[in-house]
Amino acid sequence: MLKRILLIAAILLPGAAALAQEVPLLHADTNINDLQSLQRGARDFMNYCSGCHSLRYIRYERMATDLHIPLPLLKKNLMYTSSKPLDHIVSAMPGDDAVTWFGNQPPDLTLMARYMGVDYIYSFLKGFYADHTRLWGVNNLYKPNVAMPFVLASLQGVQKPVYKSETDPSGHASMTLVGVEPGTQGSMTPEEYDRFVRDLANFLDYTAEPIKAKRESMGVFVTLFLLVFFVFAYLLKKEYWKDVH
Ligand code: HEC
């Protein structure tokens, strides 16, 4: 048994080490308290992502309340399916079709920010580059052989891969993908695109933990309360013990 475990570890560990050496993630620099960014993220998610991806652990109404989106506006601008406000946000795409079309199921994104981190989502959306060997003509720096078409290509343009050639000790030359550089022009400037994907990452951070902003402000409140409480507790202690010597 022990041998088997060691064998499995030996197979898995180099794999894990190889993953760690991959291109480092970019910093998303999101702010969960930035309501406008979250609202833009929600709008952009519904426009560009909800056709394939669901957010099945959150309801429209909860999102609207948390992000201060009035119900009529929600119904008019953000609900594309025949859903009702109390429904969960499911995608319009039936699962079997998705597998047939993309070869892989678009995952539910409600908890993706917790699972992979906000920086990953931000990097992933900035990591698409032209690769004509792939079905959709694109690949991704952070998720090699990605099955997702680059649905934001008209906004960002399509980046080009940057390779570094390396020669190993036995003289074999190989090319390693080390990054991406601007390729074709999109409708957005690089700054606008950064903000666009930052809003999306921020919104997905919200869906992964809708209570996060509240929890953080509550944390500050509780800390302040404890500090004030400490002063009173200390004075009380002094009062009780002043005659005991
Ligand atoms: C046309 C369908 C489609 C649309 C639209 C789409 N995606 Fe995807 N997405 C996919 C598929 C398919 C996968 C699975 C990729 C894979 O497993 O290689 C995926 C995977 C992902 C992943 C997970 C990557 C990983 O590491 O597993 C993220 C994050 C993601 N999409 C974000 C988005 C965001 C944000 C949008 C909107 C801007 C979006 N997607 C729009 C089809 C789509």
Summarize the structure.
The protein has 245 residues and is an alpha+beta fold. 50% of the residues lie in helices and 12% in strands.
Q: How do the helices and strands follow one another from N- to C-terminus? A: HHEHHEHHHEEHEEHH
CATH topology: Cytochrome Bc1 Complex, Chain D, domain 2
Question: Structural class, from helix and strand content?
Answer: alpha+beta
Low-confidence stretches: 13-21
Q: Approximately what portion of the residues adopt beta-strand conformation?
A: 5-15%
Residues in helices, as a percent range: 40-55%
Work out the radius of gyration: 24 Å
Write down the overall geometry: extended
Q: Roughly how many Å apart are the termini?
A: 65 Å
The CATH architecture assignment turns out to be Orthogonal Bundle
Descriptive overview:
The structure is a single chain. By secondary structure, the protein is of the alpha+beta class. It has a single domain (24-210), classed as Cytochrome Bc1 Complex, Chain D, domain 2 (Orthogonal Bundle). It has helices spanning 2-20, 35-48, 60-66, 71-78, 95-102, 112-116, 118-125, 153-156, 190-208, 212-241, and strands at 55-59, 88-89, 128-130, 138-140, 160-167, 173-181. The strands form three sheets. The protein has a two-stranded antiparallel sheet. The protein has a two-stranded antiparallel ribbon with strand order 3-4. Strands 5-6 form a two-stranded antiparallel ribbon. Strand 3 (128-130) and strand 4 (138-140) form a beta hairpin. Helix 2 crosses helix 9 and helix 7 (118-125) packs antiparallel against helix 9. Mean pLDDT is 88; it is low at 13-21. Bound molecules: heme C. Heme C (HEC) binds next to helix 7. Heme C binds next to helix 7.
